[in-house]
Every structure is written in C-alpha cells, then in structure tokens.
Design brief:
The complex is a heterodimer of chains A (about 325) and B (about 525). Chain A is mainly alpha-helical and about 325 residues long. Helices cover about 80% and strands about 0% of the residues of chain A. Chain A contains 16 helices and no strands. In chain A, helix 1 crosses helix 16 and helix 15 packs across helix 16. Chain A is flat. Chain B is α+β, with helices and mostly antiparallel strands. Helix content of chain B is about 35%, strand content about 20%. Chain B has 16 helices and 20 strands. In chain B, the strands form five sheets. A seven-stranded mixed sheet of chain B has the order 8-9-10-1-11-18-12, with helices on both faces. In chain B, strands 15-14-16-13-17 form a five-stranded mixed sheet. A four-stranded antiparallel sheet of chain B has the order 4-5-7-6, covered by helices on one side. In chain B, helix 9 packs antiparallel against helix 11 and helix 15 packs antiparallel against helix 16. The longest helix of chain B is centred in the first third of the chain and has 36 residues. The chains are: A mainly alpha (about 325), B alpha+beta (about 525). At the A-B interface, helix 3, helix 4, helix 7, helix 9 and helix 14 of A face helix 1, helix 4, helix 6, helix 7 and helix 13 of B.
Chain lengths: ~325, ~525
C-alpha cells in the first residue's frame, strides 16, 4: 500500500516529463527509420524498371521516372519525402495507386489478431510448462522435457508451419491453411508462431521459478505446511513472470515485424504479407509506410511493457519518483 | 471376484504415483481443457451447396484493376475475368472477336472494327464505339502512352468512331497483328476512369467481363469476384475467390487439400500425386521457349560472339534428358524461338541434337580447342525445376571444357540489366515469349537490333524482320517468319532449352475448364453434378 500511495504522489510535471521524453524518443526513432528506409530502398534497385516491364525502352523508363519524380537529385527527393511525411503523406503505392499509409493501416488488424493469437498460445504453453519444469528441474521427466524445449528453440517457425500444414491440412484435412475467415484457420498459424516463441519463454520462466522455489520465504512457507502447488502458483510463478515480461514485449515486437513467413505461408493478409509483396515490386512508398507503422507499433508495445513493469514491480515506481 | 494386487506391484504403483502424480494430473487437466476448446472446431461443418469457385495463382495483378500497367500473366488471370478487349485469342491461339464481332482491312493503314451490341459495363452503362475511342484516346495521351499497354499500341495513329458500333483505327505503318494487339486493350469505363483516375479506378474497376471485383482482399486473403449482373457472357458460378499464393509449397498444399478447385504452376513431379487424388492435369499449350540468351553486343571479344561457339553450346546440352528426367516429359526440347501453335512456328526445324563430339569440333574450328570459361545471370524460381535445369546445363558444358558460372539474381535486378542492356555476364536467362499476340514476330524483335539497347543484333536480318512486321498477306508473312526462324536457329542467339508451359490442376468437382492464352475463362466453368 505504501508503494501505491507513493506512486499516486508522483508530481504531474514528472509524468509530463516522462511522456515528453518518450515522445522525443519516438520522433528520433521515426526520423532515423524513415531516413534509413529512404536511402536503403534507393540502393536496393529501381522500382520503375520493375513496373515498366521487359518491353519498356530506356526512353519510356526515363519518362515514367520523370512522372514519379525519380529523375530529381536524391537530396531533393529526400526533402520532399520528409516534408510529406510530416503531413503523414507517404505518397501512393507505385503498383496500385492507393495512398500508401491507408493501404498499410488496412492490414494492421489482421497482424494484430495474429500477434494476439500467437502470444496467447505462447503464454498458454509457456507459463504452465515453464512452471512445471522449474518446480523440480532435476527430475528425469523434466530433464527430458527441457531437452525437447531446447530442440524446439532451434526449430524455425516456418519449418513447424510447413510440418503442421502437411499433417493437419494435407493429410488429415482438419484445418484450412488460407486466410483467417474461420476460427479453425487461426489454430495452425498461432501454433506455428508459438512453437518458435514459447521455448525461449519456457526456459526463462522455468529458470526463474526454479530460483524462486529455493528462496527463503518459500522454504518458510513450505515448513509451515503450504502445498507445493500453492507455493508454485501463488508465490513463485508471479515472481517469475516479472522477469519474463521484458521477453514477452520483445516477442510481441517480433510478431509485428517478423511474422512475414507465417503470413505468407498461411496467406494471412497482414503487414507481413504486404511487406513480402511490396518488396517484390520495390514499392517504395508502401515499404516506407510499413516501416513507419511497425516502428510505432513496437514503440507502443515497449511503452506498455514499461508501464506493466512499473505496475508489477513497485520498486520501479519508487525509483522513478 | 475381487482382484488382488500383489504387494510389490502396489508398492511400485505407489512410488510412481508419488514421483509422477503431479505431472500426470497436470497433463490430464491441460489435455481436458485443450480438447474442450478444440472439439467443436474439429467437427466438420454441414456441407452447403457450393457457390464459390476457388483458384490459386502465383500473384494478383501488381496494379490491381488497372489493366494498362502490364500485359500477360499474372495480371491477365484476373483482368480477363472483369474486362474484355475488342478481340481475344481462342483455345488454339487464333484471334477472334470479343467486344468486336468482326473487322476488315480498309487500306494498309486503316482497319474497321464492328462492335458487339447490347454490351453493358458492370455499372449498367452501355458500351459503344465512343467509349472504345475514349479508351484509345487516353492510351495515346501523355499519361497513357507511358503505360505498358500504351507503349504496345504506339503503332496506332488515330481512332475514330464512325458509327455507334463501328470503330476505325488508323495505324502509322501497316500492322498485320493489330487485331491480336487489341486483345490486350481492356475496355475500362472511360468516364469513371477519367474522373477518378487510374489509382482509384484500379481498386473498384468497372468492366464488361463476366465478373466484377467485390474486394481485392477478403479475410481468406483472396480477391473476391462476384457475377456481373450485366455480363454478356454470364458465368455459371456466382462467386470466385482468387488466392495469390506466390510460394509454391503453399499453392501445392492448398490444392492437394482441396481448398482450391484450380491451381496454376504446379511442378511436373507433382502431376502423379494430383492424378492419384482425382485431379485433372492440364499443360498449357501456349508455350514459351526457355534458355540462356547470349549478350553478343555487350561481349564482342568473348567466344560467344562466334556463331560456331553458340552452336557448339547448343549441341553440347542434352535437352532430351532435361525434358525427360527433370520436367518428366511435360516440356519438350525447343527447336527455335517459338512453340508449336504460334504463328510463324517452322515445323521443319528440329532441336539441336545432343552431340558433344560435334560441339568439340565446332569449338576447335572456332579456335577454342581447350574450351573457355563464361558466366550467366539467371533468375531462379521463374520456372519449375529451373535450378536442376541450369545444373544440367553446367554439367553438359563442362563435358566439352566450357566452364559456366551461374549467378542467380532476383527479377528486379535482372530487368534493370535487361532494359539497360548492361550485362556483366556473357549469357542470361530469357524466354522467347510469343504471348499475348501468339505471333513469332514479337520475341524475334527482342532478339534483334530493334530492341532498345540490344544484346543480339544481326543487321542482315533486319530487312526481313521489317517485312514480317508490315506484310499484310498472311501467307507471305508466314513464309518470311519461317525463314527468319531458320536463320535464328542457325545463328543460335540463345542456348535453346525447352518449350515451357504452365501446368494447371483442376478438381473433378468442376467441369468446363480450358485455357485461352494461358488464362482459364472462369465464366465457362461449372460445378459438376457429382459434387
């Protein structure tokens, strides 16, 4: 109670300072990412030749370049680009003519759903399995299970995805592998993501639980007759989760940006799939908007994780105040 | 009679329970929850009457509903369902009317097209000659002429509507393939196109085709098409979902698990698997000739600038083995820069036979008795099993002491080198592609001085090429193309490999599948009675 009352007494200017600092960091991050994307994409190739096709003459390409402003010096293009971004105008997709940012934002819900599902399955697996492993880490069954977890950690998500598709889609025909219109279609992509994310979290939770179970207060509680399961779930696991929150945040960030292959394999129409397609046609405006949106999503998740940390560990609030 | 357990068994059971009881209970509970959650998901839904045809292809049109940003595949697979051109190619590759019912040549520079009556766009607006003229006018405007289709019809000088359903087209030079050319000019609704611009139009296209776009991406990740209520060729199946599955494994798995009724670009080795599962397999007869083109212009001092060396390389590669063992006989060896069925295909020519001895003799004759080294730039993944094909080429050339290093690249990089004509390597992957006109002249022009920044330029052949491009008498023109094919065969500007066509699979639940210029007309497909 003492800590909570201290938190409520944080002066408003300190909260304002924290928010301003965070926003400052966000602006620097966005500026860095957009600038990097601008120059990196220009080095990657010329989108006009890709769009113009193999029948185009050099003269025709020059004309199209002029129309899109790609004939201007790079620094002039960059100035226009930054000025437009300040107005949240990323231009239009070179392929579809659709405003790039709107196009990308229309894909965000699908990616958020996949991230949420992936993380839910990850947590549903990691917390009980991590707790179980950490409870008696030296038992033979736990050692065996740890070996499996270790093996799974080295298995890329897409390999699991292909195996799952082969078994449950091709052979058994239990689940579909295209899109997300049916609840059935959510299962395999979520498991594929979880198969890659869960092992790391299992190992962390298991190590934290194992450490917690050796703490003085647990031994004391055990000596006065508290059951093992009660000690595990009421005392050790909540403490273990504190350390795992940071990893969960990182994994969420990965899901926003890194679930590309899973989205491609399951034709999940999210940001990852759009990223894959836009990269094939070097659709600069869309790729730049994707980087921008992902940066903001990751920033939001990190901010939420920091807030969660403060909530879970009152010592952090005290330090801040 | 009560069962009596021996004391030692009881002891072991007790010990095991003590050791693993927690684990057992934990997994028992978890399994219970899992089964409860998933049980209803695994119960198959009651089969409903099929209303949706599902087609898996490599990609949706990169420009969505803007049909002027590309020609051929993959765009045509979608555009030809929502738009029509004035003409189209039939199953045998012959040009016939679509939005036009016929045409005649008024003079060498003037064509008259008679348009189909009672045709309406998907918004109910009627189609007539004024609309068609407006489409051509836009394609000839400053913005339109730099589109790919605008560039393809630059031979057109002027278009006039001489009646409500009569269109007169004036060309800058006699153009024998103008009717074929018009097949790629999809008729958009020019008023909306002008008012909304290509960007907005591409998202909600209005055409005269059998279907209309409902959404470019539904929750299945597919483009959803619904029947056009005003279609002059109404479809049998009211809804189509087109799944863009770029990844081959995804396409295969979706098709074999019956999530698709139709799938494009299946690998030859999968044909038997599909047949065993009751699918029909079709090999597209509109084929292109795949191989390695030689950059003779860019490498004038290289051995490949000598015709005998290019011929030697053609003799050295065992194309029949490639066809038989790598493509399972689906793609036969190529004899020339066109496949059977293409106008101008010379059936008196045979593929270069596999003759390493003759190849060695030609190399000696050309002054390379010890062979030489060269390199090639290729795009991997364009054709099924292309890695294995290039490995076999490498192996066969090594047998005549020609060491070829294969550099793999991506399409975006390849096309930049192709358009700029700047190749670092002596050879590069390039197909003789007669689509979308199904006429041999088109690929021949790329393998000639006519190409902007050419890689192979034989000035002595230009006169004949010009004649083939302008000769209006089909018989005479065909003869010119035959002669040119023979000359290209002798000049060997490419290491000719195979006649390549896409392999399609169709579920036996559907009937009426066919391919026209590599595209299935979906309006003709229907679900079979059996389903």
């Amino acid at each position: 109670m003492k800590e909570i009352s201290q938190f409520s007494k944080i002066p408003y200017w300190q909260i304002l300072e924290r928010i301003t600092k965070s926003l400052g960091n966000l602006i620097i991050l966005l500026f860095g990412i957009t600038t990097f994307m601008f120059f990196a994409l220009r080095m990657a190739g010329d989108p006009i030749t890709v769009l113009a096709g193999e029948n185009a003459s050099v003269e025709l390409i020059a004309e199209i370049n002029k129309q899109y402003g790609f004939d201007q010096p790079l620094i002039v293009q960059y100035q226009f680009y930054i000025l437009n971004i300040l107005r949240l105008d990323f231009g239009v997709s070179l392929s579809t003519g659709q405003p790039a940012l709107t196009y990308v934002l229309s894909q965000v819900p699908a990616t958020l759903l996949l991230a949420f599902l992936g993380m839910s399955v990850t947590l549903a697996i990691s917390v009980p399995v991590g707790a179980w492993l950490g409870m008696k880490p030296d038992a033979l069954s736990r050692r065996l299970a740890s070996g499996i977890v270790f093996f799974m950690q080295g298995l890329p998500g897409f390999v699991t995805a292909l195996l799952l598709i082969q078994v449950f889609v091709v052979q058994l025909m239990w689940f579909p592998s295209l899109g997300y219109s049916q609840v059935k279609a959510w299962i395999l992509p979520s498991i594929s993501l979880a198969s890659f994310l869960a092992p790391k979290l299992v190992r962390m939770i298991s190590a934290n639980v194992s450490e917690a179970m050796r703490e003085e207060y647990i031994r004391t509680a055990r000596s006065i007759g508290a059951s093992e399961w009660s000690l595990l779930w009421r005392e050790a696991v909540p403490n273990a989760m504190l350390g795992a929150v940071a990893l969960i945040g990182t994994q969420f960030a990965f899901l926003f940006a890194g679930a590309v292959i899973i989205e491609v394999l399951f034709l999940w129409p999210g940001i990852g799939l759009l990223l894959f397609r836009s990269a094939q046609t070097l659709d600069f405006p869309v790729l730049q908007a994707i980087a921008f949106v992902i940066a903001i999503l990751v920033f939001i998740v990190n901010s939420l994780i920091n807030a969660t940390f403060s909530f879970l560990d009152p010592r952090l609030q005290r330090n801040t105040s | 009679m009560p069962q009596v357990m021996c004391p030692s068994t009881k002891l072991i059971k007790h010990a095991l329970w003590k050791q693993y009881g927690d684990t057992y209970r934990f997994f028992k509970r978890s399994l219970g929850v899992f089964l409860l959650l998933t049980h209803h998901l695994l119960v198959p839904a009651q089969a409903a009457e099929r209303q949706t045809l599902r087609m898996g292809i490599t990609s949706l049109p990169p420009t969505y509903g803007n049909p002027y940003g590309a020609t051929g595949l993959p765009g045509a697979l979608t555009w030809q369902q929502i738009y029509d051109g004035l003409t189209e190619l039939d199953e045998n590759g012959h040009v016939r009317g679509a939005l036009s019912t016929g045409w005649e040549l008024v003079d060498p520079f003037t064509w008259r097209f008679h348009l189909r009556k009672n045709v309406h766009y998907s918004n109910g607006m009627p189609f007539d000659a004024r609309k068609a003229k407006a489409v051509f006018d836009w394609l000839q405007s400053d913005v339109g002429r730099i589109t790919i289709v605008g560039n393809e019809i630059k031979v057109i000088d002027k278009v006039t509507a001489s009646g409500e359903y009569e269109l007169v087209i004036h060309t800058r030079q006699p153009d024998p393939i103008l009717p074929n050319r018009l097949g790629i000019v999809m008729m958009v609704e020019p008023g909306i196109w002008r008012d909304e611009g290509p960007g907005a139009y591409s998202r909600k296209p209005v055409g005269t085709g059998s279907y209309v776009i409902d959404t470019w991406q539904n929750m299945n990740g597919a483009a959803k098409l619904v029947a056009n209520p005003y279609a002059w060729r109404p479809p049998h199946i009211p809804v189509v979902e087109i799944f863009p599955l770029n990844d081959h494994a995804s396409r295969f798995q979706a098709a074999i698990s019956r999530q698709l009724d139709l799938a494009q670009s299946i690998r030859p080795e999968e044909i038997d698997i599909f047949k065993k599962r009751g699918f029909d397999v079709y090999v597209d007869q509109t084929k292109q000739i795949i191989g390695l083109a030689f950059d003779v212009v860019g490498h004038p001092n290289s051995p490949i600038s000598d015709k005998r060396v290019r011929q030697a390389l053609n003799y050295a590669v065992d194309k029949r083995a490639i066809s038989k063992f790598i493509t399972y006989g689906t793609h036969p060896p190529a004899s020339q820069g066109a496949a059977p069925g293409v106008f101008g295909y010379n059936n008196s020519l045979s593929p270069y036979p596999y003759d390493p001895e003759k190849a060695r003799d030609l190399l000696v004759e050309a002054g390379y008795p010890d062979g030489f080294s060269m390199s090639a730039t290729v795009v991997i993944g364009t054709y099924a099993n292309d890695v294995e094909i290039y490995q076999k080429v490498q192996q066969d050339l090594a047998a005549i002491n020609v060491s070829i290093t294969i550099h793999s690249t991506i399409f975006s990089d390849w096309i930049q080198q192709y358009i700029k004509g700047k190749w670092q390597t002596e050879a590069f992957s390039l197909a003789w592609n007669a689509t979308p006109y199904n006429d041999a002249i088109r690929p021949m022009e790329y393998f000639s001085c006519k190409k902007s920044r050419p890689f192979f330029c034989k000035k002595s052949m230009m006169k004949e090429l010009d004649r083939a491009a302008t000769e209006l008498d089909p018989k005479k023109r065909e003869q010119i193309l035959f002669d040119l094919q023979r000359k290209f065969h002798e000049e060997a500007p490419q290491l000719f490999l195979l006649e390549y066509g896409h392999i399609w699979v169709a579920s036996q639940e559907i009937t009426g599948f066919s391919l026209r210029d590599r595209v299935p007309p979906l309006n003709e497909i229907q679900f079979s009675e059996k389903q």
